[in-house]
Amino acid sequence: MNSVVQFQIWQFLLIYLLLILVVFIMRKCKIDQTKLLIAASIKMTVQLVLAGLILTYIFKNPHPAFTLLYLLAMISFSIHRVLSKNKNLNKRFKAVIAASIAISGIFVILYFVCVVVGESVFNPQYVIPVSGMIMGNTMTGVSLGVKTFSESLDGQRAKIHALLCFGASPSTILLPFVKQALETAMLPTLNSMVGMGIVSLPGMMTGQILAGTLPTTAILYQIAIMIAICTVVACACFGSLFLGYKTLYDKHTQII
Hints:
The protein is mainly α. The protein has helices spanning 9-13, 18-28, 34-60, 64-84, 91-117, 124-155, 157-165, 170-195, 203-210, 215-244.
């Protein structure tokens, strides 16, 4: 297979011309988010360029401390993003979310790299890309699940108070909201798995093929990473919601 084509700077800059089409559509539909689009594009570019420079240094100097620090930074950022989107939660609920994301993510990453692939946990070539995909999807799933749960509660306050007055227990009242939120959080991952290979060729597989890896090998890696992502999203969302909702009522079974 041919080696991957290296971008020249002028070739790379051509991709930004496509944003003109996006701006045109937004203006045509009177969507006032042009500044956000530009800011997001600049922020994405700066962050990825910095990440590329850092990873280049780490790969050339594969010290275990660098790998662990980068992994810790990804997990911390994932937790921060989820909590920043749900500022109205109590401190115990936030602690449950943070622990669920960290424990689920670390467990699945270690299992994938050390058991499935058979590489050292300090190998940045495997740990960092795999961790990025796993933690990115975990962040999205948990954010969606917790947001759905919070919005459902806010929209059903009157119903919840009425059920409490009739003697229903908090767990009986809240569990349906938890199950609905978990289903919503899992849906994007499940839909992605259903359409994968027919509707879309996913990022990891595409990247490996572009780098010259045999498609059969790339397919095996993609299947493995999707199962890992599905597992960590399920575990992190389950822990966040099924343990977190218990922080919403006190020992007198009153919803806080």
